[in-house]
Design goal:
Layout lengths: L12 H4 L8 E5 L5 E5 H7 L17 H12 L16 H4 L13 E3 L2 E5 L4 H17 L7 E5 L4 H4 L15 E6 L1 E3 L5 H19 L18 H5 L3 H14 L14
Length: about 260
């Protein structure tokens, strides 16, 4: 349920849309200790190394034979390592190196994500991001486990949903990219993470929509974004969310992460 609070990107969204698009009902305990059963309409309307290593992960819901023609062009780039595995859905996270047992989820690490919603991949921008990442880890080896995520999920079912029918505002974005400094939990390193993260976020945005609005995915937000960047620029969106906040959490009990405050 957690990812659904910010929309809920996922590998099957091309078939089924976002997590929030599939919620039928939800039990909600309010800050006032009241309990509510919300049916679908209520929810839908209101709501390392010393050198960088490029890893491409292609996930396909089907057989190996069906997938091979789709990723074959990438093998012509002569990657250093190429593997092909078939796993059940429950094993996909681990197969892609993002399972709870993998180093990326190890205890004692701090993560900061600086996400941006994009329309297209910009090759010149990606080269600039590569250089920013290289500089960060060469000057600060504590950041050698950092990553730059390019998430390109299928969007058919996501865009089939009326943007005005849910609180998720950025259905027009085709790609989700995030510059993610990862480092030993140490507050003295936070400023370095912020410096590189904000710079990379600006480069991504400038290469996609110069002068346009910055869209960010609230589940990954780094906490310095504006409410509009997270929840949408149409005034009615925040007005609805703030009205709900005032009604169901007037004392701000649920303000831990990216709250919608008056």
């Amino acid at each position: 349920m957690g990812p659904g609070l910010g929309g809920g990107f996922g590998r099957y969204q091309g078939y089924f849309g976002l997590v929030l698009d599939n919620i039928i009902s939800v039990n909600v305990v309010l800050a006032t200790a009241r309990w509510l059963l919300c049916q679908l309409p209520a929810i839908r309307i209101f709501i390392g190394a010393c050198e960088p290593v490029i890893v491409s992960i292609f996930e396909y819901a089907g057989t190996k034979a069906q997938a091979e023609p789709l990723y074959a062009p990438f093998l012509t780039l002569n990657p250093v390592v190429a593997t092909n595995v078939t796993v059940p859905y429950t094993g996909v996270a681990h197969a892609s190196g993002a399972g709870v047992e993998d180093p990326v989820c190890a205890k004692g690490l701090s993560w900061k994500l600086f996400p941006v919603g994009l329309q297209v991949y910009n090759i010149a921008t990606n080269r600039a991001i590569y250089n920013i990442y290289s500089k960060m880890i060469s000057e600060n080896p504590e950041f050698n486990n950092s990553v730059v995520q390019f998430e390109g999920y299928s969007m058919q079912a996501v865009k089939a949903v009326d943007p005005a029918s849910t609180a998720y505002a950025h259905r027009a974005d085709n790609l989700l990219v995030s510059f993610a400094p990862v480092y030993p939990a140490n507050h003295t390193l936070d400023a370095i993470a912020d410096t590189y993260g904000k710079k990379a976020r600006g480069v991504f945005h400038a290469g996609d929509a110069p002068g346009g609005p910055l869209n960010t995915y609230v589940n990954y937000a780094s906490t310095d974004e504006t409410p509009e960047q997270m929840y949408g620029y149409e005034p009615w969106r925040l007005a609805k969310l703030r009205a709900l906040k005032e009604k169901y959490d007037p004392k701000g009990r649920f303000n831990f992460y990216a709250p919608v405050n008056p």
